[in-house]
Design a protein that fits this description.
This protein has 217 residues and is α/β, with parallel strands linked by helices. The protein has 9 helices and 6 strands; from the N terminus they run βαααααβαβαβαββα. The structure holds 6-O-phosphono-beta-D-glucopyranose and magnesium ion (MG). Magnesium ion binds next to loops. One of its GO terms (biological process) is carbohydrate metabolic process.
Amino acid sequence: TIKGFAFDMDGVLADTAKFHTVAWHQIADEVGTTWTPELEESLKGIDRMGSLALIMDAGGVADKYDQTARENLATKKHTHYRELISTLTPDDILPGMQKFLTELKAAGYQMSVASASKNAPFIIERLGLTDYFKAVVDPASVTAGKPDPAIFAAAADVLGLQPSEVIGIEDSAAGIQSINGAGETSVGIGDKDVLKAANINFGSTADVTLAAIEAAW
Ligand code: BG6
Ligand code: MG
């Protein structure tokens, strides 16, 4: 029996994936990596330093940047990103998600956030969603980021639930891999070809309801 839901945040709850994209695109330009839709997709769900490494690998420039140079670029991206998210309001909740959270809460499900973002507590607060969640997993507390199962395993743990009792919701391939690896049921939101490993697929957040999930599982 399903008793809880673990939510990714960027691209699932919050319309913030576009801001990560804007800020990383600028860093890609700076290091000389061509920005492509495939590169953009591959960064979803990947933590900050991991994303930077993928951008450098894509441009074949990894050996030009030592640890200090990387940290400076990551800080630059982060500063730009913080500017972009400074004006977030509840209007930036993705379509249908507040209604879905309200529906889950009323039905007695436990909910947690499993985001790779260190900005998750700030963003959840800005969106006015704090009260829906029992916990926001601190990505710094897990041994490895997505696609490793650790963060979604922790998201079940903080709810006091077994993985088999949890549905994880994600918009990234790395995140779906993390959910599946943790032994939870995965819901993918977005391109079905990208998220083909998901147990249940939806094209957009607006399609996600408890009834639609029940019908699919
Ligand atoms: C994930 C995003 O949720 O968080 C990634 O999908 C991002 O794009 C990652 O790189 C880390 O975010 P932050 O806010 O800690 O830099
Ligand atoms: Mg995401």
